[in-house]
Amino acid sequence: MSTMAPACGAQQPGNIPTPFDWWPFVAAPIIGGALVYVWTSGIPIINGIVGATGAVFGFSTLTGGAAGAAGIATLVLYYVLKADGCIRSTPKGEDICFSGIVNDTTDENSTAVDVLAPFAMGPAGVFDVVVKSIYWHYVTQNSYWVYCDDEGAAMLPCLIKSETACGGHIGSLVGVVVGAIGGIILGYFAAAAVGIAIGCTATGFFYLLCLIIALIIAAIVAAVVAYAGAVIGGAAGEGIAAATNGNDPVVTTWKGLSPGDIVTVQGNWVTDDSVGNNEIFYTTSINRTGNIGSPAPYTTTQADSTASDDCPVAPPPIQ
To answer: Which domains are seen in the chain, by residue range?
Structure first.
């Protein structure tokens, strides 16, 4: 047990270690190569559907549509391939247990994100716990930042997983693939219609201008349809996840928490790769044993004197 209270804020110099994200480096050459192939050969299956030939206009508009759809697909992949425990597993930390007083709790759900960008939904919420002094090392060990309340008491943020968000991520991934295919086809027809309307049969500068307009139209239509597919698929995924995970005991307990609640918490202990603070990502158990009966903020002394210790094992020694 440490006898010196943790210093709030920045803890150590240097860059916060961040995990290597491999997928952009794999996706970039694949997407680039695919666009070159479409430009020269079209898309075999779609060629037959839309009647595209080897004409520059036909394959060029398919390329514009593919580029627009790929842009939206990349946006969706950026969010759904984060290591948040939905498609990719969470960062591997240590399963710990600690006790303290809930200082505050925040609902991270956003109706706007839920409706307009289900692929970007994050954790259900977070609650900050003023930890007992015997657990200070969970806040400070290897951390780059320490959160404290207004009394200067060290806190450990505890994140709550949203299975609904995970359903939205998976649904958006499926939806953007379907939407991208449909978008490329619709983009081709839209560009062809515009080409016929403005007469893209000439040569020289006017033809080049006409081709650029067609490319832009194909890209916009494909992007809009791909995004719509992601939103519709995400909404469907959210609905399925909400129906099958409506009785999550951790989420239910978290929703009932209030400032001053005395809790024992278990979960995956990691260091956040953006701020550098230690946190629980995600919380796997919350045991509420009472309430201190006074408003926040709270002190470590209050946590030490009121928070019961229900952890099954003693904390490891400070390193």
So the answer is: 23-83+167-244 (no CATH), 95-162+247-306 (2.40.50.140)
